[in-house]
Protein backbone atom coordinates (compact mmCIF):
# COMPACT_ATOMS: atom_id res chain seq x y z
CA UNK A 1 0.00 0.00 0.00
CA UNK A 2 2.84 2.38 0.83
CA UNK A 3 4.35 1.78 -2.62
CA UNK A 4 1.03 2.57 -4.28
CA UNK A 5 0.66 5.83 -2.33
CA UNK A 6 4.24 6.73 -3.27
CA UNK A 7 3.46 6.21 -6.96
CA UNK A 8 0.27 8.28 -6.71
CA UNK A 9 2.00 11.19 -4.96
CA UNK A 10 4.94 11.05 -7.34
CA UNK A 11 2.53 10.90 -10.29
CA UNK A 12 0.66 13.97 -9.08
CA UNK A 13 3.95 15.83 -8.63
CA UNK A 14 5.16 14.91 -12.13
CA UNK A 15 1.69 15.58 -13.50
CA UNK A 16 1.81 19.11 -12.12
CA UNK A 17 5.02 19.74 -14.06
CA UNK A 18 3.52 18.26 -17.24
CA UNK A 19 0.40 20.37 -16.70
CA UNK A 20 2.50 23.53 -16.42
CA UNK A 21 4.29 22.91 -19.72
CA UNK A 22 1.05 21.76 -21.37
CA UNK A 23 -0.54 25.03 -20.27
CA UNK A 24 2.24 26.92 -22.06
CA UNK A 25 1.56 24.90 -25.23
CA UNK A 26 -2.16 25.63 -25.01
CA UNK A 27 -1.58 29.37 -24.55
CA UNK A 28 0.45 29.55 -27.75
CA UNK A 29 -2.08 27.45 -29.64
CA UNK A 30 -5.04 29.56 -28.55
CA UNK A 31 -3.36 32.76 -29.69
CA UNK A 32 -1.81 31.53 -32.97
CA UNK A 33 -3.55 28.19 -33.76
CA UNK A 34 -0.04 26.73 -34.02
CA UNK A 35 2.02 24.34 -31.89
CA UNK A 36 5.32 25.65 -30.54
CA UNK A 37 7.63 22.64 -30.78
CA UNK A 38 10.44 24.67 -29.19
CA UNK A 39 8.55 25.16 -25.90
CA UNK A 40 10.60 22.49 -24.13
CA UNK A 41 13.93 23.89 -25.32
CA UNK A 42 12.91 27.39 -24.26
CA UNK A 43 12.23 25.99 -20.79
CA UNK A 44 15.56 24.14 -20.81
CA UNK A 45 17.51 27.27 -21.78
CA UNK A 46 15.75 29.26 -19.07
CA UNK A 47 16.69 26.59 -16.52
CA UNK A 48 20.34 27.00 -17.49
CA UNK A 49 19.97 30.73 -16.81
CA UNK A 50 18.64 29.88 -13.35
CA UNK A 51 21.57 27.53 -12.79
CA UNK A 52 23.98 30.35 -13.71
CA UNK A 53 22.35 32.71 -11.21
CA UNK A 54 22.33 30.12 -8.42
CA UNK A 55 25.96 29.16 -9.13
CA UNK A 56 26.87 32.85 -8.92
CA UNK A 57 25.49 32.94 -5.37
CA UNK A 58 22.02 34.36 -5.96
CA UNK A 59 19.46 32.91 -3.47
CA UNK A 60 17.26 30.25 -5.03
CA UNK A 61 13.91 32.03 -4.95
CA UNK A 62 15.42 35.29 -6.15
CA UNK A 63 17.05 33.36 -9.02
CA UNK A 64 13.69 31.66 -9.64
CA UNK A 65 11.86 34.99 -10.02
CA UNK A 66 14.70 36.46 -12.07
CA UNK A 67 14.61 33.49 -14.43
CA UNK A 68 10.84 33.79 -14.87
CA UNK A 69 11.32 37.45 -15.81
CA UNK A 70 14.14 36.61 -18.26
CA UNK A 71 12.07 33.81 -19.80
CA UNK A 72 9.15 36.20 -20.23
CA UNK A 73 11.41 38.67 -22.07
CA UNK A 74 12.83 35.87 -24.23
CA UNK A 75 9.37 34.63 -25.22
CA UNK A 76 8.10 38.10 -26.08
CA UNK A 77 11.23 38.83 -28.12
CA UNK A 78 10.89 35.55 -30.06
CA UNK A 79 7.32 36.47 -30.95
CA UNK A 80 8.20 39.99 -32.06
CA UNK A 81 11.34 39.10 -34.04
CA UNK A 82 10.73 35.58 -35.38
CA UNK A 83 7.03 34.72 -35.20
CA UNK A 84 5.48 38.09 -36.12
CA UNK A 85 6.80 38.09 -39.74
CA UNK A 86 5.14 34.67 -40.22
CA UNK A 87 1.63 35.73 -39.20
CA UNK A 88 0.33 35.36 -42.78
CA UNK A 89 2.57 32.44 -43.76
CA UNK A 90 1.28 28.87 -44.23
CA UNK A 91 0.95 26.67 -41.14
CA UNK A 92 3.90 24.55 -42.21
CA UNK A 93 6.17 27.60 -41.99
CA UNK A 94 5.49 27.93 -38.27
CA UNK A 95 6.25 24.23 -37.79
CA UNK A 96 9.57 24.53 -39.60
CA UNK A 97 10.53 27.69 -37.70
CA UNK A 98 9.65 26.23 -34.28
CA UNK A 99 11.60 23.04 -35.01
CA UNK A 100 14.52 25.18 -36.18
CA UNK A 101 14.28 27.21 -32.97
CA UNK A 102 14.35 23.94 -31.01
CA UNK A 103 17.60 22.89 -32.70
CA UNK A 104 19.16 26.34 -32.29
CA UNK A 105 18.39 26.58 -28.55
CA UNK A 106 19.58 23.02 -27.95
CA UNK A 107 22.84 23.60 -29.79
CA UNK A 108 23.35 27.00 -28.17
CA UNK A 109 22.90 25.50 -24.71
CA UNK A 110 25.39 22.74 -25.50
CA UNK A 111 27.89 25.25 -26.88
CA UNK A 112 27.64 27.65 -23.94
CA UNK A 113 27.13 25.26 -21.04
CA UNK A 114 28.58 22.03 -22.56
CA UNK A 115 26.72 18.72 -22.69
CA UNK A 116 28.02 17.59 -19.29
CA UNK A 117 25.20 16.62 -16.94
CA UNK A 118 24.87 19.05 -14.05
CA UNK A 119 22.98 18.89 -10.78
CA UNK A 120 20.29 21.45 -10.13
CA UNK A 121 19.44 22.26 -6.51
CA UNK A 122 16.00 21.88 -5.00
CA UNK A 123 14.75 24.62 -2.69
CA UNK A 124 12.93 22.09 -0.55
CA UNK A 125 14.42 20.03 2.31
CA UNK A 126 15.87 16.61 1.53
CA UNK A 127 14.32 15.04 4.64
CA UNK A 128 11.01 13.19 4.54
CA UNK A 129 8.04 15.45 5.33
CA UNK A 130 6.18 14.71 8.57
CA UNK A 131 8.12 11.46 8.91
CA UNK A 132 6.48 9.98 5.79
CA UNK A 133 8.84 7.85 3.72
CA UNK A 134 6.64 7.59 0.62
CA UNK A 135 6.75 11.26 -0.29
CA UNK A 136 9.44 13.95 -0.52
CA UNK A 137 9.36 17.67 0.13
CA UNK A 138 10.30 18.32 -3.49
CA UNK A 139 7.24 16.42 -4.73
CA UNK A 140 4.93 18.32 -2.40
CA UNK A 141 6.66 21.61 -3.15
CA UNK A 142 6.46 21.08 -6.93
CA UNK A 143 2.75 20.34 -6.63
CA UNK A 144 2.23 23.47 -4.50
CA UNK A 145 4.12 25.69 -6.98
CA UNK A 146 2.07 24.26 -9.86
CA UNK A 147 -1.20 25.00 -8.10
CA UNK A 148 0.03 28.50 -7.26
CA UNK A 149 0.89 29.16 -10.93
CA UNK A 150 -2.52 27.90 -12.03
CA UNK A 151 -4.31 30.06 -9.45
CA UNK A 152 -2.30 33.14 -10.46
CA UNK A 153 -3.08 32.61 -14.14
CA UNK A 154 -6.77 32.06 -13.41
CA UNK A 155 -6.94 35.31 -11.45
CA UNK A 156 -5.00 37.17 -14.15
CA UNK A 157 -7.23 36.09 -17.03
CA UNK A 158 -10.47 36.35 -15.06
CA UNK A 159 -10.13 39.54 -13.04
CA UNK A 160 -7.64 41.86 -14.79
CA UNK A 161 -8.33 44.10 -17.78
CA UNK A 162 -5.08 42.98 -19.43
CA UNK A 163 -6.01 39.33 -19.04
CA UNK A 164 -9.47 39.96 -20.49
CA UNK A 165 -7.88 41.80 -23.41
CA UNK A 166 -5.62 38.81 -24.08
CA UNK A 167 -8.59 36.46 -24.03
CA UNK A 168 -10.48 38.70 -26.43
CA UNK A 169 -7.52 38.93 -28.82
CA UNK A 170 -7.19 35.15 -28.84
CA UNK A 171 -10.91 34.62 -29.46
CA UNK A 172 -11.50 37.26 -32.15
CA UNK A 173 -8.59 39.38 -33.30
CA UNK A 174 -10.58 41.54 -35.75
CA UNK A 175 -13.26 42.53 -33.25
CA UNK A 176 -10.58 43.20 -30.66
CA UNK A 177 -8.83 45.64 -32.98
CA UNK A 178 -12.10 47.48 -33.50
CA UNK A 179 -12.43 48.18 -29.77
CA UNK A 180 -8.84 49.41 -29.47
CA UNK A 181 -7.00 46.30 -28.25
CA UNK A 182 -3.45 46.06 -29.59
CA UNK A 183 -3.63 42.46 -30.75
CA UNK A 184 0.04 42.30 -31.75
CA UNK A 185 1.21 43.18 -28.28
CA UNK A 186 -1.30 40.76 -26.76
CA UNK A 187 0.29 37.96 -28.79
CA UNK A 188 3.76 38.99 -27.63
CA UNK A 189 2.51 39.03 -24.05
CA UNK A 190 1.04 35.55 -24.53
CA UNK A 191 4.36 34.20 -25.79
CA UNK A 192 6.12 35.82 -22.85
CA UNK A 193 3.74 34.30 -20.30
CA UNK A 194 4.00 30.88 -21.98
CA UNK A 195 7.81 31.06 -21.81
CA UNK A 196 7.64 32.10 -18.14
CA UNK A 197 5.34 29.16 -17.35
CA UNK A 198 7.67 26.82 -19.23
CA UNK A 199 10.68 28.06 -17.25
CA UNK A 200 8.83 27.19 -14.06
CA UNK A 201 8.33 23.63 -15.32
CA UNK A 202 12.03 23.40 -16.23
CA UNK A 203 13.22 24.53 -12.79
CA UNK A 204 10.84 22.12 -11.06
CA UNK A 205 11.85 19.09 -13.12
CA UNK A 206 15.62 19.75 -13.22
CA UNK A 207 16.35 18.42 -9.69
CA UNK A 208 14.69 15.12 -10.70
CA UNK A 209 16.20 14.56 -14.15
CA UNK A 210 19.44 16.57 -13.81
CA UNK A 211 20.39 19.46 -16.07
CA UNK A 212 21.53 18.91 -19.66
CA UNK A 213 20.44 20.23 -23.08
CA UNK A 214 18.14 17.22 -23.63
CA UNK A 215 16.42 17.32 -20.24
CA UNK A 216 13.06 18.54 -21.58
CA UNK A 217 12.73 16.18 -24.55
CA UNK A 218 10.75 13.52 -22.71
CA UNK A 219 8.91 16.07 -20.58
CA UNK A 220 7.68 17.83 -23.73
CA UNK A 221 6.21 14.57 -25.05
CA UNK A 222 4.34 14.04 -21.78
CA UNK A 223 3.15 17.67 -21.97
CA UNK A 224 1.89 17.12 -25.53
CA UNK A 225 -0.02 14.07 -24.34
CA UNK A 226 -1.49 16.11 -21.47
CA UNK A 227 -2.54 18.96 -23.77
CA UNK A 228 -4.18 16.56 -26.23
CA UNK A 229 -6.02 14.64 -23.51
CA UNK A 230 -7.46 17.81 -22.02
CA UNK A 231 -7.98 19.57 -25.35
CA UNK A 232 -5.30 21.55 -27.14
CA UNK A 233 -7.40 24.73 -26.89
CA UNK A 234 -8.46 24.29 -23.25
CA UNK A 235 -6.25 25.68 -20.43
CA UNK A 236 -8.29 23.83 -17.80
CA UNK A 237 -7.98 20.66 -19.88
CA UNK A 238 -4.19 21.04 -19.92
CA UNK A 239 -4.16 20.98 -16.11
CA UNK A 240 -6.45 17.95 -15.90
CA UNK A 241 -4.55 16.18 -18.68
CA UNK A 242 -1.24 16.81 -16.95
CA UNK A 243 -2.34 15.09 -13.76
CA UNK A 244 -3.89 12.22 -15.75
CA UNK A 245 -0.63 11.67 -17.66
CA UNK A 246 1.44 11.90 -14.47
CA UNK A 247 -0.67 9.28 -12.69
CA UNK A 248 -0.84 7.04 -15.74
CA UNK A 249 2.92 7.24 -16.28
CA UNK A 250 3.81 6.30 -12.70
CA UNK A 251 1.17 3.62 -12.10
CA UNK A 252 1.62 1.94 -15.49
CA UNK A 253 5.40 2.14 -15.17
CA UNK A 254 5.36 0.59 -11.71
CA UNK A 255 2.78 -2.15 -12.21
CA UNK A 256 2.32 -2.87 -15.93
CA UNK A 257 5.01 -1.93 -18.45
CA UNK A 258 8.08 -0.97 -16.41
CA UNK A 259 10.10 2.22 -16.46
CA UNK A 260 11.70 1.51 -19.84
CA UNK A 261 8.43 1.89 -21.78
CA UNK A 262 6.89 4.85 -19.97
CA UNK A 263 7.78 7.31 -22.73
CA UNK A 264 6.36 4.90 -25.31
CA UNK A 265 3.12 4.94 -23.35
CA UNK A 266 2.92 8.73 -23.77
CA UNK A 267 3.30 8.32 -27.55
CA UNK A 268 0.57 5.68 -27.55
CA UNK A 269 -1.68 8.09 -25.64
CA UNK A 270 -1.02 10.85 -28.20
CA UNK A 271 -1.89 8.59 -31.15
CA UNK A 272 -4.92 7.15 -29.34
CA UNK A 273 -6.39 10.55 -28.51
CA UNK A 274 -5.87 11.82 -32.07
CA UNK A 275 -7.66 8.74 -33.44
CA UNK A 276 -10.51 8.47 -30.93
CA UNK A 277 -11.20 11.98 -29.62
CA UNK A 278 -9.08 14.63 -31.37
CA UNK A 279 -10.74 17.50 -29.47
CA UNK A 280 -9.77 16.00 -26.10
CA UNK A 281 -11.89 15.99 -22.96
CA UNK A 282 -12.59 19.72 -22.82
CA UNK A 283 -11.63 20.99 -26.28
CA UNK A 284 -14.04 22.58 -28.73
CA UNK A 285 -15.22 20.56 -31.70
CA UNK A 286 -15.10 22.81 -34.78
CA UNK A 287 -17.33 22.01 -37.74
CA UNK A 288 -16.69 23.74 -41.08
CA UNK A 289 -19.00 23.72 -44.07
CA UNK A 290 -17.17 22.89 -47.29
Automatic annotation (TrEMBL):
<feature type="transmembrane region" description="Helical">
    <location>
        <begin position="134"/>
        <end position="157"/>
    </location>
</feature>
<keyword id="KW-1003">Cell membrane</keyword>
<keyword id="KW-0812">Transmembrane</keyword>
<keyword id="KW-0472">Membrane</keyword>
<dbReference type="InterPro" id="IPR001851">
    <property type="entry name" value="ABC_transp_permease"/>
</dbReference>
<protein>
    <submittedName>
        <fullName>Branched-chain amino acid ABC transporter permease</fullName>
    </submittedName>
</protein>
<feature type="transmembrane region" description="Helical">
    <location>
        <begin position="178"/>
        <end position="202"/>
    </location>
</feature>
<feature type="transmembrane region" description="Helical">
    <location>
        <begin position="214"/>
        <end position="232"/>
    </location>
</feature>
<feature type="transmembrane region" description="Helical">
    <location>
        <begin position="60"/>
        <end position="78"/>
    </location>
</feature>
<dbReference type="Pfam" id="PF02653">
    <property type="entry name" value="BPD_transp_2"/>
</dbReference>
<feature type="transmembrane region" description="Helical">
    <location>
        <begin position="90"/>
        <end position="114"/>
    </location>
</feature>
<feature type="transmembrane region" description="Helical">
    <location>
        <begin position="239"/>
        <end position="257"/>
    </location>
</feature>
<feature type="transmembrane region" description="Helical">
    <location>
        <begin position="263"/>
        <end position="287"/>
    </location>
</feature>
<keyword id="KW-1133">Transmembrane helix</keyword>
<feature type="transmembrane region" description="Helical">
    <location>
        <begin position="12"/>
        <end position="29"/>
    </location>
</feature>
<keyword id="KW-0029">Amino-acid transport</keyword>
<comment type="similarity">
    <text>Belongs to the binding-protein-dependent transport system permease family. LivHM subfamily.</text>
</comment>
<dbReference type="InterPro" id="IPR052157">
    <property type="entry name" value="BCAA_transport_permease"/>
</dbReference>
<keyword id="KW-0813">Transport</keyword>
Amino acid sequence: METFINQVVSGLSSGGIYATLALALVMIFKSTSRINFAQGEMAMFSTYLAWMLITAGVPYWLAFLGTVALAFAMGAMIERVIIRPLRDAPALSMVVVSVGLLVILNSLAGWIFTYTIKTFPSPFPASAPFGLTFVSWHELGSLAVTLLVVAALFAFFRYTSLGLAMRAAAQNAESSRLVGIKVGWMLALGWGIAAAIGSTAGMLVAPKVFLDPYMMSGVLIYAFAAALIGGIDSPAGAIVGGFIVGLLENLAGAYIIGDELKLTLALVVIVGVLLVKPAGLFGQVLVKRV
